[in-house]
Amino acid sequence: MTRTVTIHTRALLAVLALCLLGACAAPLSRPAPDRKLYNITAQRLESLPAATDKSVLKVRPLQVSPAYQGKEMVYRLGETEFESDYYNSFFVQPAQNMTQLTEQWLGRAGIFSNVVDSTSQVVDTHLLEGMVNSLYGDYRDRAAPKAVLEVQFFLLKNKNETYGVAFSRSYRKAVPFASGGKDAAPLAAAYNQALAEVLAELEQDLRGVK
User: Is domain 36-209 classified as CATH 3.30.43.10?
Assistant: First the structure.
């Protein structure tokens, strides 16, 4: 009798063990979600002739607030609640991407004779610096999300190798978009619009203060 019970107990334990192993293995067999990569691609469509005054604008790499330095997209869910999204991220670091786009935009604007990056050995007449203070999807109102971009720019003028601030301004855009659920493509498109609006306003301001 005791032997029979022992055999049955062992069999039951074996079945339970197999069930547990099956339950543990099930999640491992599920495919991982695809990771999607996006880029901000704002561009000035029209290219104007360059100025003829031999001015040179050097664009320094934009700095980004520590909260938004990574490639992962950042979402604001509450007044103090934020989260990053590993599965929806930028293809290039935001600082590098937006620096290049700023340089290209102003190069096509024709305000200066030349627009170069910070690695150029050309002596500049003007220096542009920028700080990205906000770069996130605002989902506090889930029915009306917004792409928030805030950038502060400084234009420095070179006078005998001494730089003075000729202009500074903070630009903030909150562009609404239709929520795509787990699809971040609408947010990326809204970032494009936000940066294009910022650079268009920066262009107009630089024309007046150059």
Answer: no
